[in-house]
Amino acid sequence: MSLRLNIIVASTRPGRVGPSVANWFLGYAKEHGSFEPHLVDLADFNLPVYDEPKHPRLQDYQHDHTKAWAASVSAADAFVFVTPEYNYHPTPALVNAFTYVSKEWGYKPASFVSYGGVSGGTRAVDQARTWFGTLRMMAVPELVMCPMVANQIQDGVFTPNDLQLESADAMLSELKRWAEVLKPLHG
């Protein structure tokens, strides 16, 4: 059974380091072999602050950007959100992306590669996970944390340490277990 993993870059601001971290994780996920990984950059969808006239649970989308986002989320069997921390919270772009669709997230496992300063983005992860229950996503506790991320980026390339590699392996293995079990509920 082929399982699709969407690796979602959750920051859209200019000068972000999310793509560097996400590109490393994409390569690692390919090597791991548990999923068919896809890099999904929220910046590519250019989602304005939620602008659909109808509630997302109805899935009656009027705008092309929403239809494209819904198709991307729907196609996945699991998610990894590559996210920084802004004021102890997830990025506004990620919160907005959660808001745009509803049923498409359901019955799929998800986790994080978080990055930032000393906390490594973990406070944002704690806040973002509060959305999972409402959206019927399965929170996988294993995650990858990248504190002081700037120290690991040279010429736009993120280089993980041993703990991050071990964490990525554990997370991907757990995501696969849950994705296999949950696939009949959404696929």
What features would you describe in this structure?
The chain is of the alpha/beta class. The protein has one domain (4-186): 3-Layer(aba) Sandwich (Rossmann fold), CATH 3.40.50.360. Helix content is 42%, strand content 19%. It is built from seven helices and eight strands, in the order βαβααβαβααββββα. Strands 1, 2, 3, 4, 5 and 6 form a six-stranded parallel beta sheet that branches. Strands 7-8 form a two-stranded antiparallel ribbon. α1 links the parallel β1 and β2. α1 crosses α7 (162-186). The N and C termini lie close together (12 Å).
Task: Please provide a brief summary of the model.
This protein has 187 residues and is an alpha/beta fold.
Overall geometry comes to globular
Distance between the termini: 12 Å
Q: Estimate the helix proportion, in percent.
A: 40-55%
Radius of gyration from the alpha-carbon trace, in angstroms: 16 Å
Q: How many strands in all?
A: 8
With helices defined by DSSP (H or I, 4 residues minimum), what is the helix count?
7
SSE order, one letter for each helix or strand: EHEHHEHEHHEEEEH
Second rung of CATH, namely the architecture: 3-Layer(aba) Sandwich
- Could you tell me the CATH topology label: Rossmann fold
